[in-house]
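User: I want to check something. If I give you two sequences, will you return the structure for each one separately, not as a complex?

Assistant: Yes, each is folded on its own. Here is the first sequence with its structure:
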Amino acid sequence: MRVKFVQRFCSQPTRLSCQASTLRHREPRLYSIDTNNRSIRAASNGQQGASTLLLALFVVVVLVTATVGLLFGHKLGYQRGFHAMQTETKQAMINSSEATKELEKLRLSNKIATNQAATAKQELAISLANIKELRENQKELTVENRQLSQLNEAYAEIVVDEGGMPLKILGAKIKPLPENSFEYGFDVGMLSSDGQAKRLQPTLTLLNDNSLVEVPLDPAVYSIDGITRIRGRFTMPTGFRPLQVKLNLKAGGQEIEQLYNWSLGASVDNMPLSLLDLSEVDESPIDP
């Protein structure tokens, strides 16, 4: 635009000079513009090259970073997976070992249970055999007792026909117990001439030189028709030491009295500490 403006206002004579001057002035300007353009282009090309280089470097960095990240992640994941696999393998081995131990315990328990079952089976067989033997013995004893009872009845009938059997003491016993107590036992026999049971009233008395103590009997009255066993326990009064024992019996109009010297024989070993540890009163027969 500047060139056109100069050409319009120059005169004819000076047109050439103006053109020349314009050309002279234009050439440098064009050169300077061209130089600037080249520098701009060069700068632009340099910037574009730098941008491309930076972009390439950025891409390379991104690729390298991604590759390193992938490799690191792969390695980290592999290590974690390896450690997890090792942990699972160890846990599996521990579980397998515990399962083996439990299996051994179960086998041992099964073996013990089998042995116990076999032992229980043997004990059951022995118990059944003992029960069978006891039943057979009981049956034999029942038969023998029935026979003895029948024989006793036959003898009793004969004795009654002969006038009966007078009241008499067949056996007596007193033994020591814990807590200054004693157990007494008397076997008494009698058959009345009419063959009927009679009312028996016993009296037990402890004697020494100066006094006497009557022992309360429980029960106080018995029924006698053949043989009657009088059994019981009593506690000795504190400070009393008997020298004799007197047993008085009344039944069917008959009365007898028997004195025994107080003698307990040898000391009793392994005696219980209390009466609560004792069983019931002994009902076994007494040897005369």
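And separately, the second sequence with its own structure:
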Amino acid sequence: MSIPPTQDNPTNGRGEEWRLDAELLRSTLARLCERPVSGAIWPSTLLAFETGLPITEVELALDPGRQRDRTSKPELATWSVYEQLLYRLQAGDHDREVCQAAHERLARQLWQRVSPPRDIATIVREADFMAAMAALTAKSGMSLRAIAEAMRDLDSEHAWTKSGVQPYVAGKTLPPLDKKKHLRTLLSVLCERAGRPADDVEHYLWAWDSFRPRPQFARPQLVTLPAASRHQEQNPPPISARRVPRTIQLTMSVATVGVIALIVLVVIVGVALLI
């Protein structure tokens, strides 16, 4: 499963070393997003839209070592996520090698979410999650009263009452998006009683978090000039071949006549003086 974090162990002398690699990975991606080869700025929402990745995975990739709350472990997105982002950002070989080396070092120290079990991986709709919660509750064999009491014992600040938890464990509705800490407490209780590994708590939360509303973007359109326009832009015609406004043409004609008349008058006066 996942690799346990080691940065909190003061005996290994590497307590803060992972932060340097995290900053290297973060700054490299930030530069590619802000000054990419394509010339377009890439916000995380647009990257998620273009790659088809969950927005939570893109946000984690752009901020390695992030803790979603004080009780969470510092996380790291999988390398497959970075591969897709680097491809979309048209990263060069050097940037790709830098990111891969930093990721390999971070993977030895941070919690890296791996592929969830099949039953959690199939949660793609809100109805799937509600059904999964009902199945997990049934597997735990806990009553509503027992669930509420266990939640209070684990985290009294983020616990539901017996009546408050009932709609969620019965699969009747989705837990609110602003109650993530409450849901983590509930999942911790149910997973432990149902005999599921602790990592499945994060897998369930990842599935639940994917239901957040996402901004909609239209796919960027490239403006292509017609062939004739591109040729004219690259090979502008000489000045003599360009169309000159008629008013300018008349002004130039009058000025030319005036200059010629002046020259003739000067010649006549000069001849008269000589005579």
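Because they were folded independently, the notes below concern the second chain alone. The mean pLDDT is 78. The longest strand covers residues 75-76.
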